[in-house]
Specification:
six-stranded mixed sheet; binds flavin-adenine dinucleotide; 503 residues; single chain
Length: 503
């Protein structure tokens, strides 16, 4: 085995994807066998957005032995219980996709079926009244779930908001302390082996050459190795995800800040608000076919909370994925591998799963094609399932501005059309392989946008309606009463993880 082992890995790029990749490689690979080097360019810098996460990031922290309070303080972070959607579906509509479900199944049937039955009987309470995360979030409260408290009040998850630049710095310290070598410099040339076409080395502008057996391309949208060198190709999803730009800035925000991300639909896209301890991240993601950069900038600034702290800048992107995430001796991670607009904050999740999957399929220098094919199949399935979930938010709309008209009427991927059909028929979502989002998430988006199934599960009728109504009321009231007793997010942060000056 060892004579064919990969002896050196070069990570190209020091943004979130580069440092997460280096940290995970350093955690699993034997330093006596494999040397890990990361090259990044201070002159080029990082994309500097990507500040909202999903709960799987807590697994990464656990794996790397990162202490939560230290991490939140160092990245000036805050807590995220889900996403509040405003004006999606219809202007004035508010709904919540929380990191949890709508409570325990009742007699084996998911709670949204029971909610639907009560709704048919005239009870017009929103489904969010049964969300523990929203019970906390709408009151500005935060506490981690307490496994001791049993099912019910402990059954939710959470993630973080953080400053992307501080996060990269934090991971860099972590990696350097664990043997990763950082090289600063701008790559000006990439050399390939004549016969195999494999990448042999990169050359920096000052003439230094860095060789490796295996390369992780974390160079951002351009895909320096995977695209510019290996010409892997890109599958564009622009026909389903027309938003292709974002105008971004930071503002002073407003206190108290909520423990969730806010996404507000606007005339040609949507705007995020990501509250941190020292500022708020803001961006308007829009479709350039339906609005101008000037109009987007104006609208974003007009709806900003607090004072702007930076000159707004425009980022351009194209939703889609690289045709192969792994090509020859190069695996693309992060923006180099493709991009899904940040509506559900899924990019960092996809970075994590990509690098974890690489560890699971880690090659030797012979690189069996079957392993590469399997890796590519899993990556493609995963990102396509997330893509469908994001498209769902758009296609359910009743809004009538030209961009919204387009997304309401566009043809959908077959996989998503199938899910919508089954939901409408019976309130169920057929989950596929490598599915990141489970049924409560799909239900939150369907119901939140006013897409109700034609029927509820008939087995619900086994339960006496008055008894069901009493049980649902008790659940709702228990969640609300419990949330009232919890600390505010501000009090929790002040006690455990108030920001500290960057090291
Ligand atoms: C508008 C927008 C909002 C987003 N919001 C979220 C969000 O809320 N949540 C989320 O999970 N994700 C979000 N993302 C995605 C997220 O920003 C990225 O997935 C994440 O930052 C990782 O980027 P990266 O490391 O792949 O690339 P980058 O940050 O662009 O890093 C690229 C690295 O490559 C280096 N590099 C490039 N060329 C060279 C060269 N020639 N020589 C040497 N080094 C080089 C650069 O210096 C840099 O270090 C968002 C993205 C966009 C565009």
């Amino acid at each position: 085995m060892t004579e064919n082992a990969i002896r050196s890995v070069l990570v190209v790029g020091g943004g979130t994807s580069g440092w997460i990749s280096a940290a995970v490689l350093a955690r699993f690979l034997d330093p006596a066998t494999t040397r890990i080097t990361l090259v990044e360019s201070d002159e080029i810098g990082i994309v500097g957005v990507g500040e909202a996460t999903v709960p799987i990031i807590r697994n990464l922290n656990g794996l790397l032995g990162i202490d939560e309070n230290d991490f939140v303080a160092a990245t000036h972070g805050s807590f995220k219980l889900g996403i509040e959607f405003r004006d999606w579906g219809r202007i004035g509509n508010v709904h919540f996709h929380g990191f949890g479900d709508f409570g325990e199944d009742i007699e084996g049937i998911a709670p949204h079926h029971h909610w639907l039955k009560l709704r048919r009987q005239g009870d017009d309470r929103p489904i969010e009244d049964y969300s523990l995360t929203y019970a906390l979030g709408r009151r500005g409260r935060f506490t981690p779930p307490d496994p001791e408290s049993g099912r019910g009040e402990s059954d939710y998850r959470y993630a973080y908001h953080f400053d992307a630049a501080l996060y990269a710095r934090y991971l860099r310290r972590h990696c350097e302390a664990r043997g990763v070598t950082r090289v600063e410099g701008r790559i000006s040339d990439v050399a390939q082996h004549g016969e195999s076409g494999d990448i042999a080395s990169v050359t920096l502008a000052d003439g230094r050459a860095l060789e490796a057996d295996f390369f992780i391309d974390c160079s951002g949208f351009r895909g320096l190795l995977i695209e510019e060198t290996l010409k892997t190709g890109y599958d564009s999803w622009a026909q389903w995800l027309p938003c292709d730009r974002a105008v971004v800035t930071a503002s002073s925000g407003e206190a108290p800040s909520p423990p969730f991300t806010t996404s507000t639909a606007l005339e040609a896209g949507w705007q995020w608000r990501i509250p941190l301890q020292h500022r708020e991240g803001n961006g308007y993601v829009y479709a350039s076919r339906f609005t101008s950069d000037e109009r987007a900038r104006e609208l974003m600034l007009a709806t900003l909370k607090g004072e702007p702290m930076q000159e707004p800048r425009v980022l351009r992107f194209e939703g889609g994925r690289r045709k192969l995430a792994w090509n020859r001796n190069c695996v693309a991670v992060g923006l180099a591998s493709g991009f899904l607009e940040p509506l559900e904050s899924t990019s960092i999740q996809l970075i994590q799963t990509a690098i974890a999957r690489l560890i699971d399929h880690f090659p030797d220098r012979r690189r069996d094609p079957a392993i590469i094919a399997e890796y590519n199949r899993l990556c493609a399935n995963e990102v396509e399932r997330v893509r469908d979930f994001i498209i769902l938010h758009y296609c359910l709309t009743h809004r009538t501005e030209p961009m919204w008209d387009y997304v309401r009427n566009m043809d959908l991927p077959d996989t998503l059309a199938h899910k919508i059909e089954l939901w409408k028929a019976m309130g169920r979502v057929p989950l596929m392989t490598e599915e990141s989002y489970q049924e409560p998430s799909w239900a939150a988006i369907f119901l939140g946008n006013g897409c109700l199934p034609g029927r509820y599960d008939p087995l619900v009728d086994r339960i006496d309606t008055a008894r069901l109504a009493r049980g649902m009321a008790a659940r709702r009231e228990a969640y609300a009463a419990w949330a009232e007793r919890m600390p505010t997010q501000a009090a929790y942060i002040a006690r455990h993880c108030a920001m500290k000056a960057p090291a």
